[in-house]
Write a structure and sequence with these properties.
Elements: H1 4-23, H2 29-36, H3 40-60, H4 65-68, H5 70-90, H6 94-122, H7 126-154, H8 161-177, H9 209-231, H10 233-240, H11 246-268, H12 272-296, H13 299-327, H14 333-362, H15 364-405
Subcellular location: Cell membrane
Organism: Microlunatus antarcticus
Protein name: MFS family permease
Length: about 400
């Protein structure tokens, strides 16, 4: 068995690698589009089935590791993810892409909660575990986009090599994860049958509902924007901005998520009351810059906007996670965060699917501009709700001393 520090590194690497698969196909979408004459809507369908399969796994096998252990679920998920990569490498059309995406989505959904729990179990402290578990997804997505873009542009076998590399990495990680010591589950109920762990379980305790509902616009705005980058982002960069290098396309997509990682770190050092304003403000400014860049065809300006928007994405989402963590009863946090991720992934896929439909009628640039405008509107709603909540909390705090005096 591995030592605790080594286990923490392995769990973190597995967490990042799991999300690497999410963005790896994105730089290849223009290649598939030209090779098989695919429409923008077809590309967003390929993207959406991944999220659908991920949600099914998240709602069913997501909590299975609490019963049978982290190692078997994490290892099996990584092996299944390797199979998904092999299916990508042999795909010969839309049917092959859809099959690969479904397998990949289910594997990522099964691994997400398990690997996150493994990171927390092996972390040297709860704070370190929280920071790493919230940072590795953005890091993994950025690595996937840049790695895929680089291999497609400069290496042989552009449609296969990246998936072969990832398949080998996932098999190796599956073996390493098996060496991570499992936490003691002797206190868990053993009388309840395992199949009950597969029943979908989402919901919100009554005390958490007002906070959660107030955060929905912010959660939807951040995840809808990331969904646009991973579904139509490569087409926007390649078609609207005229970037022909697959490596540069992957790099532009990657900087958004790398900036999200930076936003997460910066947000942690800010006062609690400032985090939401910082994240939402950066999100609005960044999206507006990208919207201005598209009609001008300015790639540098688009990259600047992506960096600013990425910082806002990371900071705003971390602020939402912190608020929910504080509002949720400790015994029900798992269920609260499962519900949050269901909303997040719906926002991740449904608007992107609608954008794919809109592209067929209005073309890519107007659709991207309208998408950005709607995202800004959502962020502004989130900012207004946040201001109202802050004002209400301040007045509630001001009234409490007088209530005590009476």
């Amino acid at each position: 068995m591995l030592s605790r520090p080594t286990s923490f590194v392995v769990a973190g690497a597995a967490g990042a690698a799991t999300l690497t698969a999410a963005s790896a196909p994105s730089p290849l979408y223009p290649v598939y589009q030209r090779l098989w004459d695919l429409s923008a809507f077809t590309l967003t369908v390929v993207f959406a089935v991944y999220v659908a399969a991920l949600l099914v796994a998240l709602l069913t096998v997501g909590s299975l590791s609490d019963r049978v252990g982290r190692r078997p679920v994490a290892s099996a998920s990584l092996v299944l993810l390797a199979l998904g990569m092999v299916l990508f490498s042999v795909a010969g059309g839309v049917g092959g892409l859809l099959t690969a995406r479904v397998v990949q989505g289910f594997a990522v959904g099964a691994a997400t909660g398990t690997v996150t729990a493994m990171i927390m179990d092996s972390a040297p402290s709860p704070r370190t575990g929280s920071v790493v578990s919230s940072a590795v997804p953005a890091l993994g997505i950025a690595i996937g986009a840049v790695l895929a873009g680089g291999l497609v542009e400069f290496a042989p076998l552009p449609r296969q090599l990246v998936f072969w590399v990832l398949a080998v990495a996932y098999v190796a990680l599956a073996g390493l994860v098996w060496l991570v010591p499992d936490r003691d589950r002797s206190g868990a109920s053993s009388r309840e049958p395992v199949w009950r762990s597969l029943l979908p379980s989402v919901g919100l305790p009554s005390a958490t509902r007002p906070v959660f509902l107030a955060l929905v616009p912010s959660i939807c705005a951040t995840w809808a924007l990331s969904g646009l980058y991973l579904s139509l982002g490569s087409s926007i960069v390649g078609t609207v901005l005229g970037v022909r290098s697959h490596f540069l396309v992957g790099l532009v997509l990657g900087v958004f998520f790398l900036a999200g990682l930076g936003g997460t770190v910066v947000s942690a050092s800010l006062p609690v009351r400032v985090r939401g304003w910082f994240g939402h403000g950066a999100l609005v400014v960044g999206v507006l810059i990208t919207v201005v860049a598209l009609p001008r065809g300015s790639t540098p300006l688009y990259v600047v906007g992506s960096v600013v928007a990425g910082v806002g994405f990371g900071a705003a989402f971390r602020s939402a996670v912190n608020a929910l963590g504080e509002a949720a009863p400790s015994a029900e946090r798992g269920q609260v965060f499962a519900t949050m991720y269901v909303v997040s992934y719906v926002a991740f896929s449904v608007p992107a699917l609608a954008a794919g439909l809109a592209v067929a009628r209005f073309w890519l640039e107007p659709t991207a501009v309208a998408y950005g405008a709607l995202d800004v509107a959502l962020v502004l709603v989130a900012m207004i709700i946040g201001a109202v909540r802050t004002h209400r909390d301040d007045h509630g705090d001001a009234r409490r001393p007088s209530a005590v005096k009476r």
